[in-house]
Amino acid sequence: MESNGLSTQWGLAELHGSLTDPAISSMNLLNELIDEYPRAISMAAGRPYEEFFDIRLIHDYLDAYCEHLRRDRKMDEAGVTRTLFQYGTTKGVIPDLIARNLAEDEDIDAAPESVVVTVGAQEAMFLVLRTLRADERDVLLAPAPTYVGLTGAALLTDTPVRPVRSTENGIDPDDLVLQLKRAGEEGKRVRACYVTPNFANPTGTSMDLPARHRLLDVAEANGILLLEDNAYGLFGAERLPTLKSLDRSRSVVYLGSFAKTGMPGARVGYAIADQRMPDGGLLADQLSKLKGMLTVNTSPIAQAVIAGKLLRNDYSLVKANTREIAIYQRNLRHTLDALTRELGDRPGVGWNTPTGGFFVTVTVPFTADDALLEHAARDHGVLFTPMHHFYGGKGGFNQLRLSISLLTPELIEEGVRRLAALITARLP
Amino acid sequence: MESNGLSTQWGLAELHGSLTDPAISSMNLLNELIDEYPRAISMAAGRPYEEFFDIRLIHDYLDAYCEHLRRDRKMDEAGVTRTLFQYGTTKGVIPDLIARNLAEDEDIDAAPESVVVTVGAQEAMFLVLRTLRADERDVLLAPAPTYVGLTGAALLTDTPVRPVRSTENGIDPDDLVLQLKRAGEEGKRVRACYVTPNFANPTGTSMDLPARHRLLDVAEANGILLLEDNAYGLFGAERLPTLKSLDRSRSVVYLGSFAKTGMPGARVGYAIADQRMPDGGLLADQLSKLKGMLTVNTSPIAQAVIAGKLLRNDYSLVKANTREIAIYQRNLRHTLDALTRELGDRPGVGWNTPTGGFFVTVTVPFTADDALLEHAARDHGVLFTPMHHFYGGKGGFNQLRLSISLLTPELIEEGVRRLAALITARLP
C-alpha cells in the first residue's frame, strides 16, 4: 500500500513515452533555464510584440462581434448571449469570418465548412496527425530542424517523424522525393509532410515560388498531404503566395494561427481541410469528430475576441498589424545590422538573412548547447535558443536561434553586443 | 493521381480507428437526428439553463479579474494586459483561485501547483488517459453506462475501457474488485477507474457515503487511481463529500468542470493531480508537459472570465448558482411528478429518482433505440437520448435518458405528456 497514491510501478518509465522523449525533456529544461535568468536580454522567446496590448481592445472586440451577430446575422439578444455563453458547434462559430479573412489576406478560397476552429494551431496539428495515424505503418515527414509543436503533436499521437533536408530555400523537394521512396521501400506509409514556407520557426527561411510549385507537384504525384503552417507569413517585406492559394489538387491542409496576428491569449487557430473523403464529407468533418472528443469546442468567447479584431479591420490582419509588421521588419533589420557590425569579421561565424518573420539562424564554429546557453545567461546576460532543440537533439549543435519579436532596437543592440562578446571569447 | 487530394487509400478505414468506433458514430448520428427536429421539445440536451445569461456579465467578470491582478497581485497595467493578451503558463493563470473555490465549496485542500487548467474537463480526461497509457497492457475501468466524453478520450488514446457494474448507488465497489482481479489474470494493468459519484451523466445516480469510503479503500489497496468527475455535484438538495475531499492516500485525480457552474462558453476545466511522482514533482507536472504539446495553454481570457465569476461570488460557485440550483431542483421535481402522473400505472415502465443533477433514467419494456427516437421526434415532437449510446452500443436498449436542465415547467409537463403518449402506444 502506497502513501503517495501511486504504486512504485508508476515512475516516468510507466507513463506514456512522450513524457521521456529527449525532445520534450530538452524543451522543458530550456524553459526552466530561461526562467532562471529573468533579467537577461531574451533573444529566445518567440512571443509577439506587446506595446499595443490594451485591455479595452478585448471589450471592444467582444462588442464588435456581438454587433455583428445582431446586425449581420439578425440574432435577437437571446441568440447573441447563447452564442457566447453556451456550448458552441464543434467546428466553431466563426468559420465564415475566417474564410473572409483568408480571401482578403491570403487569396485562399476556403469554404466555411472546410474550416475547423481549434485551440491554437497546436490543437489543429494534433487533430490532423491523430486522424492520419491509423497504424504503425503511418509516418510523417518534416524538415529538420522543425517546429517543436509539430514534434509534440507527433509524440502525442505516436507518429514517427522522418526528417527531410532543409536549405536556405526551405524544405528540399528533391530530398522529399528521396525520403518518400525510402519510406515506401521500408514498408512505411507517408501520410503527410509538414512545411512552413514563410519565415519558418526556427530557421527564419522561406521557399521561393518555383520551390513551392515543385513541392505541390511532388505531393500531388505521391498522394501525400502537405501540412502548411503559416504562423509568420504576414510579417514579411515581400509576401509570396501560400501553398494553399496555389493548391489545385487539394493536397494542402492549411494550419492557421492567430497567436502572432490576432492575440496569443485567445488561443484560437484553425485547420482548413477541404479534402473530400471517399465516404462523403470533408476531411474537416473527421477532424471535427476528433475535436469533439478532445476539447468539445473552442471557447466561443475566445473566438469572439478574434472575430471582433477581424470585424474592426475589414477582415484584414495585414491591416490590423500595420504597426506590428513595421516593428518586426525594423527589429529584423537592426538585428542583421548589429550582427554584421559586431561579428562581420569573425571567422567561421555566419547567419542567414530572412526578409521577414521572427527568427534568425546564427552559425558558430563551436558547440552551442544548453551548457553554452547557461554560461551566456549567467556571465553575459543574454538568452538565445540552441538549435539542437529543433532537431530532437540529433543535430544543429553549431547553430542558435535568435528571436527579434519582443525587443526594442536598444535591447537588440545590447543583446547582439553581449552575444558577440560570448562568441568572440569562444573563438580560437 | 487524385483530383480530390486524397488517394483512394484514404477512406475512413485508413484513418485513426476512433473515427469509425460505434460509440462515436452513434453519437454523431444522434446529434444529426436531434438537429433535424429543432421544434421538438428536447429532453436530450444536457446544457445549462440560459435565462440568466447576459453579455454584460462577461465584461464585468473580465473587469473583476483585472482589478484582482492590480489590487491583490500588485500588477502594473503592462502586467495585467500581458496576463490576458500573451501566452500564459501551461498550467494556467488561475490555479490559486480554483484552489480557493475548492476549499470554499468542496472542502478540498488543493495546492495550486497540483492544478492544471484545461480546455474543459474533456481535455483533462484526455491528458490523464494519455499520461497513463504507456503500452498495450494498460486499461481503464469505468461504470457502464458512462459519460461519452470519457469514451471519446479513451478512443483518442487507444485505451481500452472495461465496464464495471453500476447500480442505483453508483459504481459497484464489489464488481470493481472482481474486474481488477480479472484484468490482472489477463495480464492487463488497470491504471485508473473513472467515477462520477454525484448525479452521474447519464444515469443521474449518486453514491452514498459508505460506498464512497469503500471505493477509496479498494483504490488504495489496489494501487489504482480514481478519476473523479464532479460536473453536476453542485446541483443537489443534499451534497455528500467528494471522493477527493475524503482522499487520504492521493488515490483521486479530480476532474473539474466550469461548464455547468461557470459558463460553457469559457471552455475552462481543470485536473487536480497531487500524486507525487517517484522521480520528483507531481502528476500535475506530467499532465502539464502533455498539455504543452496539445493546446499549449488554456486561453487566459477564458480563464479570466471564470476567475471573475469566482471573485464576484466570494470564490463560491454554490453562491453564484443559487438561482440555477433552485431551478434545476424545481425542474427535477416537476419531471418526476409528471412521470408519476402520466406513467405511474403503466406496467413495466419505471424511472429512478435522483435528488439532484440534470438527468433521470426511464426504463421501458420495449426497445428504445435511435429508430424509436426518430419516431418520437417526428410523430410526437419530443426528444430524449437512448441509453445505449452510453454503453458503447452494447447494452441499455430498454432505457432512455431525460435531461431537465434547459426546460421550463410548462415544457417539462408537455414533454413528459408527449413521451407518455409514445410509451403508452408501445405497451402491449
From TrEMBL, chains A, B:
GO molecular function, one term: transaminase activity
Every Aminotransferase class I/classII large domain range: 74-419
CDD domains, sorted: AAT_like
Keyword Protease: no
SUPFAM superfamilies per record: PLP-dependent transferases
Pfam family, one: Aminotran_1_2
Cofactor(s) needed by this chain: pyridoxal 5'-phosphate
Keyword vocabulary terms for this entry: Aminotransferase, Antibiotic biosynthesis, Pyridoxal phosphate, Transferase
Taxonomy, superkingdom: Bacteria
Keyword DNA-binding: no
Protein name: PLP-dependent aminotransferase family protein
Organism, scientific name: Amycolatopsis samaneae
